[in-house]
Amino acid sequence: MSIADVAIRAGVSQATVSRVINDNNTVSQDMANRVRQAIRELHYQPTLRRRRHPATREPVAVLIVHQNQFHHYTSSCSFMLLGVEQALRDRQMDMILAHVGDADDLPQAVLSKQVSGLILIGHQPSQEVLSALEDIPTVWLTSHHDVSGDMLLSGNETVGRLAAEYLIEKGHKTLGVLNTLGPNPVVDLRCQYFTFVSESRGCTVRQYVSDRDAMFRETTKLDLDLFERQVAEQVTRMLADEQRPTGLFVPMDLQVAMVYRLLDKHGVKPGKQLQIVGTDDEKGALIGLNPRPATVNIGPVTMGRHAVEQLFRRVDHHEERRVRVTVEPQLIPGD
Questions:
Q1: Are 67 and 103 in contact (CB under 8 A)?
Q2: Domains in the chain: how many in total?
Q3: What is the rounded distance in angstroms from the CA atom of residue 214 to the CA atom of residue 223?
Q4: Does residue 306 sit in the same domain as residue 275?
Q5: 277/307 same-domain check
Q6: Of 113, 138, 232, 318, which cross-links 118 as Cys (Cβ 3.0–4.6 Å)?
Q7: pTM (two decimals)
Q8: CB–CB of 42/6 below 8 Å?
Q9: Domain ranges, residue 32
Q10: pLDDT profile of the chain (335 residues), mean per 10
Q11: 3-state class of 63 per DSSP?
C-alpha cells in the first residue's frame, strides 16, 4: 500500500495526501476528510517524517527536464550545477539531482513535496511533469519556452551583441551565422541579436542555418556523426556563397570545433581567411584549436548561485511577481 493508492481512493493528488499526512493546513476540510477516510479504508500506515531541527530545511531538487543530449555534451550545465551546489552548501543544505523525461522519473521527495524548492534546467518539459511540480517554489536556470516561474538567464541578447561587436571591431563587413542546433530559445536569441546588431551597424549577415535539429531530439545518445554531417552541409553552403563572410558567429563552441575541422578539409585557415567567434567558453572544445577563437563566457557558476538566492527570496518572502535575473556575459578574445 502506498501514498499513490490513497490518492486514487480519495480522488486527490499525491501531493494533497502528503499535505494531510503532514498536517498541512492548506488542504480544505472536505479533501482532508476524504484522504483520512481513504487511509482508514486501506489501513495505510504512513511513514512519519523525521522531525528536523527548526533551522534545517528540506533539500532542493535540481531537475533536468528536457529529453535531449545537450546537457551531457556541454560543461555549462556542469558549472551551473556546481554553482547551485556551492550556494546550498553555504546554507548547509542538500541537493537532489535528477534527469526527468516524464513524471515517472520524478524523485519521491518531489512527488511528496518534501523539498524546499525546485531549480529546473531545460526547454520543453512535458505538461505532465509541469503539473506534478505545481505549488512548489521554482526557479528556471535557463531560457525556456514556457514563461511561468522565476528565471535565471544567461543574457543571450548580450551574447549576440558581444559576438557582433567583436567581429565588427575587427573590420569585418560581411558576417555569417552558422547553426545546426534547431529551434531553441537560447540559440535563437543569440543569433537574432547578432544579426540585429550587425545589420544596424551596416553589415551584411549571411545565414547558414540547418532546418533539421542536430542535437535537440529525444534519443538516448547524440549521433555525433550526424551532427558533423549537418555542420558540414552548412560549411559547404558558406564556402560556395558568392558573398562569403569573413567573420562568422557559431553559437555553441561544440559546433565551433567541428567548423574548424571541416574548414581544414577545404584548405581554409581560420583566423586568416575566416574569423570565428563562438559561445559558452567550452575549454574542452576550444583547447586544441589554433588559433583559438573568441568566445563568450555566460557565467554559469554565478548563474547557479544566483538561482539558489532567488529561490529562497521566493520561499522566504513569498514574492508574487515573477522575477527574471540576467547574468552579464563576458567576451573572451581569441588568439
A1: no
A2: 3
A3: 8
A4: no
A5: no
A6: 138
A7: 0.76
A8: yes
A9: 3-42
A10: 79 79 75 87 68 61 76 81 93 91 88 91 78 86 65 84 96 95 80 96 95 56 79 95 96 92 93 93 90 94 92 79 84 91
A11: strand
